[in-house]
Specification:
The protein contains 5 helices and 12 strands. With about 290 residues, the protein is α+β, with helices and mostly antiparallel strands.
Length: about 290
Protein backbone atom coordinates (compact mmCIF):
# COMPACT_ATOMS: atom_id res chain seq x y z
CA UNK A 1 0.00 0.00 0.00
CA UNK A 2 1.17 3.49 -0.80
CA UNK A 3 2.21 5.44 2.33
CA UNK A 4 1.48 9.19 1.99
CA UNK A 5 3.66 10.09 4.98
CA UNK A 6 6.79 9.13 2.98
CA UNK A 7 5.63 10.68 -0.28
CA UNK A 8 4.48 14.11 0.89
CA UNK A 9 7.98 15.39 1.92
CA UNK A 10 9.21 14.56 -1.56
CA UNK A 11 6.45 16.62 -3.13
CA UNK A 12 7.20 19.51 -0.82
CA UNK A 13 10.92 19.46 -1.66
CA UNK A 14 10.15 19.25 -5.39
CA UNK A 15 7.68 22.11 -5.16
CA UNK A 16 10.17 24.37 -3.38
CA UNK A 17 12.87 23.50 -5.90
CA UNK A 18 10.56 24.44 -8.80
CA UNK A 19 9.73 27.73 -7.08
CA UNK A 20 13.39 28.60 -6.58
CA UNK A 21 14.35 27.81 -10.16
CA UNK A 22 11.34 29.66 -11.52
CA UNK A 23 12.18 32.75 -9.49
CA UNK A 24 15.38 33.21 -11.50
CA UNK A 25 13.73 32.82 -14.93
CA UNK A 26 12.99 35.90 -17.10
CA UNK A 27 9.41 37.11 -17.04
CA UNK A 28 8.81 36.24 -20.70
CA UNK A 29 9.35 32.52 -19.95
CA UNK A 30 7.51 32.47 -16.65
CA UNK A 31 5.07 35.33 -16.00
CA UNK A 32 4.72 34.27 -12.42
CA UNK A 33 8.53 34.42 -11.83
CA UNK A 34 8.47 37.91 -10.32
CA UNK A 35 5.94 36.86 -7.68
CA UNK A 36 7.95 33.75 -6.90
CA UNK A 37 11.16 35.83 -6.63
CA UNK A 38 9.58 38.15 -4.10
CA UNK A 39 8.21 35.15 -2.21
CA UNK A 40 11.65 33.45 -2.20
CA UNK A 41 13.42 36.57 -0.95
CA UNK A 42 10.87 36.90 1.83
CA UNK A 43 11.48 33.30 2.91
CA UNK A 44 15.27 33.53 2.78
CA UNK A 45 15.60 37.01 4.32
CA UNK A 46 15.82 35.75 7.96
CA UNK A 47 18.86 33.66 6.97
CA UNK A 48 20.84 36.59 5.55
CA UNK A 49 22.18 37.83 8.90
CA UNK A 50 23.60 34.47 10.08
CA UNK A 51 25.16 33.88 6.66
CA UNK A 52 26.82 37.32 6.64
CA UNK A 53 28.06 36.80 10.21
CA UNK A 54 29.58 33.45 9.29
CA UNK A 55 31.34 35.02 6.31
CA UNK A 56 32.76 37.83 8.45
CA UNK A 57 34.03 35.30 10.98
CA UNK A 58 35.79 33.31 8.28
CA UNK A 59 37.45 36.44 6.88
CA UNK A 60 38.59 37.45 10.38
CA UNK A 61 40.21 34.07 11.01
CA UNK A 62 41.91 34.17 7.63
CA UNK A 63 43.50 37.54 8.53
CA UNK A 64 44.53 36.43 12.08
CA UNK A 65 48.17 35.10 12.45
CA UNK A 66 48.52 31.39 12.94
CA UNK A 67 48.27 30.47 16.62
CA UNK A 68 51.22 28.09 16.39
CA UNK A 69 53.49 30.95 15.35
CA UNK A 70 52.39 32.93 18.42
CA UNK A 71 53.14 29.93 20.63
CA UNK A 72 56.61 29.56 19.10
CA UNK A 73 57.31 33.25 19.72
CA UNK A 74 56.19 32.94 23.35
CA UNK A 75 58.39 29.87 23.80
CA UNK A 76 61.39 31.77 22.44
CA UNK A 77 60.75 34.70 24.76
CA UNK A 78 60.34 32.33 27.70
CA UNK A 79 63.62 30.61 26.82
CA UNK A 80 65.40 33.99 26.69
CA UNK A 81 64.00 34.97 30.08
CA UNK A 82 65.07 31.65 31.60
CA UNK A 83 68.58 32.19 30.23
CA UNK A 84 68.68 35.69 31.74
CA UNK A 85 67.61 34.27 35.10
CA UNK A 86 70.32 31.60 34.88
CA UNK A 87 72.94 34.27 34.14
CA UNK A 88 71.75 36.36 37.08
CA UNK A 89 71.85 33.34 39.39
CA UNK A 90 75.36 32.53 38.17
CA UNK A 91 76.44 36.13 38.81
CA UNK A 92 74.93 36.02 42.31
CA UNK A 93 76.82 32.79 43.04
CA UNK A 94 80.04 34.41 41.84
CA UNK A 95 79.49 37.40 44.12
CA UNK A 96 78.82 35.11 47.09
CA UNK A 97 81.89 33.03 46.31
CA UNK A 98 84.07 36.14 45.93
CA UNK A 99 82.83 37.36 49.30
CA UNK A 100 83.71 33.98 50.82
CA UNK A 101 87.22 34.17 49.37
CA UNK A 102 87.66 37.73 50.61
CA UNK A 103 86.49 36.79 54.08
CA UNK A 104 88.70 33.69 54.11
CA UNK A 105 91.85 35.59 53.10
CA UNK A 106 91.06 38.69 55.17
CA UNK A 107 90.88 36.57 58.30
CA UNK A 108 94.48 35.46 57.58
CA UNK A 109 95.71 38.90 56.57
CA UNK A 110 95.25 41.10 59.67
CA UNK A 111 97.78 43.65 58.44
CA UNK A 112 95.95 44.05 55.11
CA UNK A 113 99.05 43.43 53.03
CA UNK A 114 97.05 42.15 50.08
CA UNK A 115 94.37 43.71 47.94
CA UNK A 116 91.97 42.17 45.47
CA UNK A 117 92.29 43.23 41.85
CA UNK A 118 89.37 42.15 39.66
CA UNK A 119 90.36 41.11 36.14
CA UNK A 120 88.67 39.86 33.00
CA UNK A 121 90.09 37.20 30.70
CA UNK A 122 90.72 38.72 27.27
CA UNK A 123 92.31 35.76 25.49
CA UNK A 124 93.52 32.18 25.68
CA UNK A 125 96.40 30.29 24.15
CA UNK A 126 95.73 27.54 21.64
CA UNK A 127 97.60 24.82 23.56
CA UNK A 128 95.10 23.09 25.89
CA UNK A 129 97.81 21.12 27.71
CA UNK A 130 99.77 24.22 28.74
CA UNK A 131 97.22 27.03 28.67
CA UNK A 132 98.08 30.69 29.13
CA UNK A 133 95.28 33.17 29.80
CA UNK A 134 95.46 36.92 29.17
CA UNK A 135 94.16 39.49 31.65
CA UNK A 136 93.27 43.17 31.33
CA UNK A 137 95.31 44.24 34.40
CA UNK A 138 99.05 44.81 34.72
CA UNK A 139 101.81 46.72 36.43
CA UNK A 140 99.73 49.87 36.76
CA UNK A 141 97.35 47.85 38.92
CA UNK A 142 100.36 46.55 40.97
CA UNK A 143 100.19 43.10 39.39
CA UNK A 144 103.52 41.25 39.58
CA UNK A 145 104.84 37.87 38.44
CA UNK A 146 103.90 34.98 40.74
CA UNK A 147 100.86 36.78 42.14
CA UNK A 148 98.11 34.31 43.00
CA UNK A 149 95.01 34.16 40.80
CA UNK A 150 91.76 32.98 42.36
CA UNK A 151 88.22 32.55 41.09
CA UNK A 152 85.54 32.70 43.76
CA UNK A 153 87.05 30.89 46.79
CA UNK A 154 89.13 28.59 44.59
CA UNK A 155 92.77 28.64 43.57
CA UNK A 156 93.30 29.00 39.81
CA UNK A 157 96.95 29.76 39.07
CA UNK A 158 99.88 32.21 39.12
CA UNK A 159 100.78 35.33 37.14
CA UNK A 160 103.55 34.69 34.57
CA UNK A 161 104.22 37.87 32.58
CA UNK A 162 103.20 41.45 33.28
CA UNK A 163 102.82 44.46 30.98
CA UNK A 164 101.74 48.00 31.84
CA UNK A 165 98.00 47.25 31.52
CA UNK A 166 97.90 43.53 30.85
CA UNK A 167 99.30 40.27 32.10
CA UNK A 168 99.16 36.53 31.57
CA UNK A 169 98.69 33.72 34.02
CA UNK A 170 99.01 29.97 33.86
CA UNK A 171 96.58 27.72 35.73
CA UNK A 172 97.95 25.06 38.03
CA UNK A 173 96.44 22.46 35.68
CA UNK A 174 99.16 23.13 33.08
CA UNK A 175 101.21 20.09 32.13
CA UNK A 176 103.89 18.94 34.64
CA UNK A 177 102.80 21.43 37.27
CA UNK A 178 103.17 20.23 40.86
CA UNK A 179 101.07 21.33 43.78
CA UNK A 180 101.08 20.17 47.40
CA UNK A 181 97.73 19.92 49.12
CA UNK A 182 95.76 18.26 51.88
CA UNK A 183 92.97 15.81 51.06
CA UNK A 184 90.22 16.01 53.62
CA UNK A 185 86.59 14.99 54.02
CA UNK A 186 85.91 18.12 56.04
CA UNK A 187 85.57 21.47 54.34
CA UNK A 188 86.75 23.44 57.35
CA UNK A 189 89.47 21.45 59.07
CA UNK A 190 92.80 19.97 57.98
CA UNK A 191 93.26 17.64 60.91
CA UNK A 192 91.23 14.82 59.35
CA UNK A 193 93.18 14.88 56.09
CA UNK A 194 96.56 13.82 54.73
CA UNK A 195 99.15 15.71 52.71
CA UNK A 196 100.30 14.67 49.23
CA UNK A 197 101.69 16.11 46.01
CA UNK A 198 99.56 16.31 42.87
CA UNK A 199 100.90 16.29 39.33
CA UNK A 200 99.11 17.61 36.25
CA UNK A 201 99.15 15.60 33.04
CA UNK A 202 97.90 18.55 30.97
CA UNK A 203 94.42 17.14 30.43
CA UNK A 204 92.83 19.34 33.07
CA UNK A 205 93.03 16.84 35.93
CA UNK A 206 95.70 16.10 38.53
CA UNK A 207 96.67 12.85 40.18
CA UNK A 208 98.64 11.64 43.19
CA UNK A 209 99.92 8.22 44.21
CA UNK A 210 99.38 7.70 47.93
CA UNK A 211 99.73 4.94 50.47
CA UNK A 212 96.76 2.60 50.62
CA UNK A 213 96.56 3.06 54.38
CA UNK A 214 94.87 6.41 53.80
CA UNK A 215 91.12 6.43 53.47
CA UNK A 216 89.94 8.61 50.61
CA UNK A 217 86.61 8.67 48.85
CA UNK A 218 85.05 10.38 45.89
CA UNK A 219 83.96 13.89 46.89
CA UNK A 220 86.82 14.57 49.30
CA UNK A 221 88.13 18.14 49.05
CA UNK A 222 91.67 19.07 48.09
CA UNK A 223 92.98 22.20 49.84
CA UNK A 224 96.21 24.05 49.21
CA UNK A 225 99.02 23.31 51.66
CA UNK A 226 102.12 24.53 49.84
CA UNK A 227 103.87 27.24 51.90
CA UNK A 228 107.09 26.86 49.88
CA UNK A 229 105.40 28.20 46.74
CA UNK A 230 102.35 30.17 47.89
CA UNK A 231 101.85 32.93 50.49
CA UNK A 232 100.38 31.97 53.83
CA UNK A 233 97.11 33.86 53.26
CA UNK A 234 96.02 31.43 50.55
CA UNK A 235 96.95 28.22 52.36
CA UNK A 236 93.75 26.23 52.78
CA UNK A 237 92.05 27.52 49.63
CA UNK A 238 90.11 24.79 47.87
CA UNK A 239 91.95 23.51 44.81
CA UNK A 240 89.66 20.73 43.66
CA UNK A 241 87.70 17.62 44.49
CA UNK A 242 88.51 13.92 44.36
CA UNK A 243 86.59 12.33 41.48
CA UNK A 244 88.09 8.84 41.42
CA UNK A 245 90.20 6.45 43.48
CA UNK A 246 92.11 3.71 41.61
CA UNK A 247 93.65 0.68 43.29
CA UNK A 248 96.96 -0.05 41.52
CA UNK A 249 97.43 -3.69 40.56
CA UNK A 250 101.16 -3.35 39.95
CA UNK A 251 101.64 -1.58 43.31
CA UNK A 252 99.46 -3.31 45.92
CA UNK A 253 100.43 -0.85 48.65
CA UNK A 254 99.55 2.23 46.60
CA UNK A 255 96.41 3.86 45.26
CA UNK A 256 95.96 6.67 42.76
CA UNK A 257 93.57 9.52 43.44
CA UNK A 258 92.27 11.74 40.66
CA UNK A 259 91.50 15.36 41.43
CA UNK A 260 89.27 17.60 39.31
CA UNK A 261 89.77 21.37 39.73
CA UNK A 262 86.78 23.29 41.05
CA UNK A 263 87.08 25.85 38.24
CA UNK A 264 86.93 25.09 34.51
CA UNK A 265 89.50 27.16 32.62
CA UNK A 266 87.51 26.82 29.40
CA UNK A 267 84.47 28.65 30.76
CA UNK A 268 86.26 31.04 33.13
CA UNK A 269 85.50 34.68 32.39
CA UNK A 270 86.59 36.70 35.43
CA UNK A 271 89.22 36.21 38.12
CA UNK A 272 90.75 38.04 41.07
CA UNK A 273 94.47 38.70 41.37
CA UNK A 274 95.84 38.81 44.88
CA UNK A 275 98.20 41.80 44.71
CA UNK A 276 100.46 43.48 47.23
CA UNK A 277 100.65 47.24 46.48
CA UNK A 278 103.39 49.41 48.04
CA UNK A 279 102.53 50.96 51.37
CA UNK A 280 102.43 54.49 49.93
CA UNK A 281 100.02 53.34 47.21
CA UNK A 282 97.62 51.88 49.78
CA UNK A 283 97.87 55.04 51.89
CA UNK A 284 97.12 57.12 48.83
CA UNK A 285 94.07 54.97 48.03
CA UNK A 286 92.80 55.35 51.56
CA UNK A 287 93.09 59.10 51.33
Amino acid sequence: MHNPTHTSPRYIIAFISIMLISSFLPARFAPWAAYLSDFTITILKPLSSPINAAGSSLRHHAQTPIISEDVDQLNRELHNKEREIQNLNRYIRQLKSSLEAANFISSRDPNKEFTYTAASITGRSADPTSPVLHLNVGAKQFVKPDDVVIASPYLVGRIKKVGPNNSTFQPFTARKNLITAVVTPNQLEFKDGFRCQFTSDGSGILYADIDRKYTVKQGYLVRLDDPANFPSVVQGLIVGQVTNVIQLEDAPLKQKIIMQPMVSIRTLGNVTVLTRPPADAKDGDQQ
